[in-house]
Specification:
Jelly Rolls, disordered N terminus, 7-stranded mixed sheet, 12 strands, alpha+beta, disordered C terminus, 3-stranded antiparallel sheet, single chain
């Protein structure tokens, strides 16, 4: 499930389509890939976009001449001793917060961080965060965990903010979101999310520059994580 608050926006569809095209930066690709691990519906949508893209390529792209060594080069890469190792999905080697399984793309990202950087920091009463460094300018990411009933500060967005619920439930503007749900908050929207009163929640949050061509104005999360 996904939610895009009013005013109407197609940002969520844009994210899935651009992911299918390989057009997202590393930060957005990470959160969308994590979303796909948890949402069968999203996987089906991306598969449809990939089929459409393949059909358009087949219809509109003319064959081009290849070098004489092209086929040999591809076959050599397929037979490379390290090919199986590079193509095999890595195991989730990083202990997840609360001993809960995390989406594999997120686990792989965490595995690149030194142990000393996988620590929690206070952000608000009942809420803590773990910073997730990204090699993407003007983009900030973190894991947020909230105790039952904890409330995030009310804030307005001056750029895109994406929240992926990993565990528990998040209450926001009369809606309840569970594992795999992704909330896309666009510019000039505001909210006051509350963690589930019984189980709290664990979320993957990303914010920063909303789209190419826009000025990178940071929202609350950007200011807190970009210190």
């Amino acid at each position: 499930m996904s939610y895009i608050p009013s005013p109407p926006s197609i940002t969520y569809d844009d994210l899935l389509m651009q992911y299918a095209c390989g057009a997202l930066d590393d930060g957005l690709a990470l959160i969308v890939a994590s979303h796909l691990c948890l949402s069968q519906t999203a996987r089906m949508v991306v598969a449809q976009y990939e089929c459409v893209g393949g059909a358009l390529i087949e219809k509109n792209c003319q064959p081009v001449a290849m070098g004489e060594s092209s086929l040999k080069s591809v076959l050599e890469k397929l037979n490379c001793p390290n090919s199986k190792k590079s193509c095999t999905a890595k195991k989730d080697t990083v202990p997840a917060p609360h001993n809960l399984p995390l989406p594999q793309p997120l686990c792989r990202h965490l595995s690149t961080l030194p142990a000393m950087r996988r620590s929690w920091h206070f952000i608000a009463p009942g809420i803590s965060f773990m910073r997730l460094p990204l090699n993407v300018p003007d983009r900030h990411a973190a894991l947020l965990r909230a105790k039952p009933g904890a409330r995030a500060p009310h804030h307005e967005h001056k750029g895109l903010e994406i929240t992926l619920v990993l565990h528990g439930h998040l209450h926001d503007d009369g809606m309840v979101y569970g594992p795999g749900d992704m909330i896309v908050m666009e510019t000039h929207t505001s909210h006051h999310p509350v963690a589930d009163p019984n189980h709290g929640c664990l979320c993957f949050v990303m914010s920063g520059a909303p789209r190419a061509g826009r000025h990178p104005l940071h929202n609350l999360l950007s200011r807190l994580l970009g210190r």
